[in-house]
Design a protein that fits this description.
Layout (H helix, E strand, L loop, with lengths): L1 H10 L3 H17 L5 H17 L5 H18 L3 H14 L5 H15 L4 H16 L7 H21 L10 H12 L8 H19 L6 E6 L2 E5 L2 H14 L3 H7 L1 H6 L14 H30 L1
Antiparallel strand pairs: 1-2
Helix pairs in contact: 1-3, 2-3, 2-4, 3-4, 4-6, 5-6, 6-8, 7-8, 8-10, 9-10
């Protein structure tokens, strides 16, 4: 399968490479323990980057390819040089005009920052925060929300490194005002659904940025087990996994050891099989039959004694 994926990247063009990048992430999540992930990332990295840079490809496909490249770097590579190369690419792509590319770039940056060292995080936050703040005024609601969520993640990481992080943020009060306005925005020229989603998202973002909010979400992955999201970084990881796996996310969280290790879930719990109604009825009949048999034996013994 390793060779098939590499050959598909080398021979494929445009959308074919985009589809192969998705298949590669799925392969890594399913067979991560059985292949050399570093080699795989090294082999396909240049092909995915060339796909992202190809202006003839639909921006939506290029944005998704960029996010999948970031997902592969997160899953496959511990090499700091790979991370630096990707961060340079992301810093370049965040200047783009396409909403699809901006959204996927911001999601990619959030994901990669979760595996950066504290020094790398400080440097990237200093560079990126002034740029991302401008997207809070972007006409596309999804760009505004993605920018807000990135800022919330930045403040969580910043406070983990320095409890007084907001003191180092330029125009902090102005940033709070912008986020607060978005959390109460009732402008009629925006679609009703957009206003509702934006207000709900930015209320949570505002609480995180001001330091008044806590993340404590429970995601039910099976009748016996929940996944606890206790930080914004956890939310970023879960959102990335859901973007890749879609409707099969819960199944992988239940059974896939590689995926479970990402969230520190350990081995899957023992599965307790629920008995069907037919099984319960059958067992009850067997018990009644055994009881009747024992009762008849006892009655025969008593009759023999009387005779």
């Amino acid at each position: 399968m390793f060779d098939v994926l590499v050959k598909s990247f080398k021979l494929g063009k445009g959308s074919e490479r985009c589809n192969t990048s998705h298949l590669t992430v799925l392969y890594v999540l399913q067979c991560g323990d059985e292949t050399d992930l570093e080699d795989l990332y090294t082999e396909i990295k240049c092909s995915v980057i060339s796909t992202v840079e190809d202006s003839n490809i639909n921006p939506d496909l290029r944005g998704k390819a960029l996010f999948r490249l970031s997902s592969l770097c997160f899953l496959c590579s511990d090499n700091i040089e790979d991370r630096k190369e990707l961060l340079v690419l992301l810093r370049e792509k965040i200047k783009g005009s396409s909403p699809e590319i901006i959204i996927n770039t911001l999601a990619s940056l959030s994901l990669i920052l979760t595996i950066c060292t504290p020094t790398e995080q400080r440097n990237m936050i200093k560079i990126l925060l002034p740029v991302v703040r401008k997207f809070l005024k972007h006409p596309n609601v999804e760009v505004r929300i993605e920018a807000g969520e990135f800022i919330a993640h930045v403040f969580e990481m910043g406070r983990d490194d320095d409890p007084e992080f907001e003191d180092s943020v330029e125009d902090f009060e102005s940033l709070i005002e912008d986020i607060d306005n978005l959390s109460t925005d009732g402008a009629k020229f925006r679609a009703k659904r957009d206003r509702k989603v934006q207000r709900a998202s930015f209320r949570e973002i505002l609480a995180m940025v001001t330091g008044e909010g806590e993340i404590a979400e429970q995601v039910k992955i099976s009748p016996q087990e929940n996944l606890t999201l206790s930080s914004w970084s956890d939310k970023v990881l879960y959102a990335a996994l859901k973007e890749i796996l879609g409707s099969s996310t819960s199944l992988h969280l239940q059974q896939n050891l590689f995926v479970r290790e990402i969230f520190g879930l350990g081995a899957p719990p023992l599965k307790i099989e629920k008995r069907t109604k037919a099984e319960k009825t059958g067992n009850k009949r067997k018990m009644n039959a055994a009881y009747q048999k024992a009762r008849q034996r006892n009655m025969l013994k008593m009759r023999d004694k009387r005779m």
